[in-house]
Amino acid sequence: MLDASFVRNNLELVQRKMAERGKSVPLHEFSELDSRRRSLIKEGEDLKAARNKVNPEIGQLMKAGKADEAEGKRAEMKRIGDRIKEIDPELSKTEVSLNHLLATIPNIQDDSVPIGHDESANVEVRKWGTPRVLDFTPKDHVELGGLLNILDLDERQN
Predict the structure, then answer these.
(1) pTM
(2) I need a surface site. Which of 14, 61, 97, 109 has the fewest CB within 10 A?
(3) E-only strand ranges, 41-95
């Protein structure tokens, strides 16, 4: 899975590399989700910082006998706390959507990888030895497992 900061900082590269693979990736959706996530994080952190700043002031006002001012600040802190409680689930939902989208974006191929839509574009780099010439037709693993009675495929299929 590609890192969100890498995709954010290399949108054009990711788009080009996906096009080379013949993939269509909704990077506009990534940008919207990423922007929303970053905005929610900033808003939440700003509100928490404001709450941390004002809470000691409320105590000082109470000690000074200014209960009316303290109650006004308490009401403000209640609104801030309510907004923080709204932000947290919204942030979680946005992060889940963003991570799901990132999980669908394939890794970026190296520039040395030939551009092609199937294995016919592959380039053989080297060979080691000579491939065996078999005097029989090989069977695939499913067929062999069934013949050897070591795979229980029939019971797993619903």
Answers:
(1) 0.67
(2) 109
(3) none
Q: How high is the pLDDT of residue 155?
A: 60
Which domains does the chain carry?
4-109 (1.10.287.40)
Q: How far is CA 68 from CA 49, 55, 73, in A?
A: 23, 15, 9
Query: How long a stretch of residues is the chain?
Result: 158
Average pLDDT over residues 118-127: 83
Name which of 11-25, 31-45, 78-92 the model is least confident about: 11-25
Mean pLDDT of 119-131: 86
Question: What distance, in Å, lies between the first and last C-alpha atoms of the chain?
Answer: 31
Backbone dihedral angles phi then psi of residue 64, each to the nearest 5 degrees: -80, 0
* C-beta separation of 105 from 18 below 8 A: yes
The token pair at 27 is 């990077």
Contact at 8 Å (CB) between 40 and 87? yes
Phi then psi for residue 3, to 5 deg, are -75, 140
| Contacts of residue 14, Cβ cutoff 8 Å, sequence gap at least 6 | 2, 6, 7, 25, 27, 105, 108
Instruction: State the CB neighbour count (10 A cutoff) for residue 25.
Output: 18
